[in-house]
Amino acid sequence: MRHLSTVPPSRGTIIFLNGTSSSGKSTIAAELTRVLDQPCFHMAVDAFHAMRSRAPVPAERLDEVLHRTWQGFHRAVAGMAAAGNDVVVDHVLSAEWRLRDCLALFDPRDVVFVGVHCPPAELERRERARGDRPTGLAVRQLPQVHAHGVYDLECDTAREDAATVAHRIKDFLPRRPSPTAFEKLRAELRDGT
Hints:
alpha/beta, Rossmann fold, five-stranded parallel β-sheet, 47% helix
């Protein structure tokens, strides 16, 4: 067995799936963990919310608790990638600060930013079928989730199934652009645009 001190340093790739609730991110992430050649971790903010104890949160503290959960999630993703792990992130950038936080934390050269789109009528149909989300939540998220407008790759889950999207992402990985979408967004943030 190789001693841990001999493990060469490495940077992990972050495949960042951004879309509204019910857009199909988790299904794509599950397919990616199946088809990618390298070991990877699916990290979803819903899983982080599920780890929270069931202690009641007073209404006046709810926003703070949720904000800290998102911040912790971002730092966990950054830490996994910095340790050389490939990560598939399932995220909803429905608040501008979330994107800014990720831009500050992640190495932008290592992020493949994927826009997961789905038409409003299909989002509402999926919400009704799921039964665990309020109908209309995803449509309310739409204006902010894709407001930044820059991706490395985009998909429409009403037109492509998760397996097709996962294979497109896999095929895209070896020919990632330079600068990446995250590099462009970080530059825009620096320039104040």
